[in-house]
Amino acid sequence: MLADALEHLVRGIVDNPDDVQVTARPARRGELLELRVNPADLGRVIGRAGRTARALRTVVGSLTTTPVRIDVVDVDRR
């Protein structure tokens, strides 16, 4: 559910919504959501000084009572 919510939010922000991928994995302290976007949209997802990424983390974090970590993965640096 959290992965779907994050994917929906990010698809509304980016220019290439078909390239958005969210992978959910269990982590040691909660759940880890890995977000992959088109490299051209990376700046749009992070935002100025990380404001957009912080807002996405806040919104998704408010949907659950368990800890959630969201990582924006740079696909060029795999």
Automatic annotation (TrEMBL):
It comes from the Bacteria. It is found in: Cytoplasm. It holds the Pfam family KH_KhpA-B. Keywords: Cytoplasm, RNA-binding. Its main location: cytoplasm. The keyword Cytoplasm applies. GO terms for molecular function: RNA binding. SUPFAM superfamilies: Prokaryotic type KH domain (KH-domain type II). GO terms for cellular component: cytoplasm. Belongs to the KhpA RNA-binding protein family. A probable RNA-binding protein. This is RNA-binding protein KhpA. It comes from Serinibacter arcticus.
